[in-house]
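Hey Z.,

So I finally got round to the fe (iii) ion thing we talked about over coffee. Here's the setup:
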Amino acid sequence: MNKNTFILKGNILYSKTKTELSVTEQGFLICFEGISQGVYPQIPDAFQNLPVIDCGDCLIIPGMTDLHLHAPQYPFRGIGMDMELLEWLETHTFPEESRYADTDYAQNAYHIFAEDLKQSATTRAVAFGTIHPRATELLMDNLEATGLKTFVGKVNMDQNCSDIIREPSAKTSLDVTVKWLESVAGKYQNTKPILTPRFAPTCSAALLEGLGKLQKEYRLPVQSHLSENLSEIAWVKELFPWSLFYGDVYDHFGMFGREAPTIMAHCVHCPEEEIKRMKNNRVYIAHCPQSNINLASGIAPVRRYLEENIPVGLGTDIAGGANLSMFRCIADAIGMSKLYWRLIDQTKKPLTMEEGFYLATVGGSSFFGRVGSFAPGYEVDALILDDKNIRTTQNLSARKRLERYIYLAEEGGKIVGKYVAGKRIF
Ligand code: GUN
Ligand code: FE
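And the result:
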């Protein structure tokens, strides 16, 4: 029998809709060749001969997607959190990223990062590397070894940043990107390239134009940053005075959803026209609540994005966010939505636990296809959670145990099993 064909038995939860959980206590999740055939209270006759993996009293939930993170920033996570974005980039981020010119340093750092990501709740991730093609390939090698499914980008930046991290010209940046793409083409099963202009301020018009052409030629998805910080937004207006709004710069060069699946991180301060364009173009928003707190960027209107049916997922934005934990990310997203409601707009109700969980699973995972749910037809990315060491005198329902796990994962919670598209990772 195919190794990726089995039944998981335990307390199974997944998002039935944006606002509703499916909960089956002591139920059976049927995985056939990596694809869910559904969750049942008893094993259906057609699947009686499949091997059953008994997870006891554990919770079984979909794996989570980290829709935005910077792998090279992992070494300084949790350090230097007292600055806003632009000063933080120059002071902490660019000096660290410049170290990845050294492939030994890159290999060591990316090995640690990949090992930690493997143990986390994340089964899919979309990551920035650095400008360095060799280091970015090492990041891809290390991620491929984990069994997780990821998109990885070699960063492009040719202006308005310290020399240590600036590519000398648009042409060099594009040539190096093509070399990187050719070097990694067909090399991996689970690791794919994504075009990665860092953000509009550090990309010349010539570079953005060239990247738009590469996107078409290689049919690549795109990731970047958008409307994260007020000074950043003013700077984009100065650099690209013809633009109607920040995102219009990316759209002008064919990298804003219409031509390619696109992720824009943050979207904290988007004007109406920008929101409308994102909605029309089906741009994915990576909401990164902890980063928005640490860099004092602001509070993103996530409820609004959900109401508008714009695709939204969650990102840690390592090292803007200090934690790899997607559980922490959900708790932060819920907390931030409460502040938005209390302080900014009382018509935008806070996110519920169900909605936060949806964002971390189906919301972001849909960038990878049918992933993030256990409904029939979805790829089985699954986490087995043991919460017995998060002690309480209460007798809790599976739903309450999940809610508590989101808030208390680091206080005794343990991920004891992890599957990606039906393949056991550990
Ligand atoms: N904008 C441009 N680069 C970065 C980065 O590395 N982190 C964050 N949070 N925002 C950015
Ligand atoms: Fe970022």
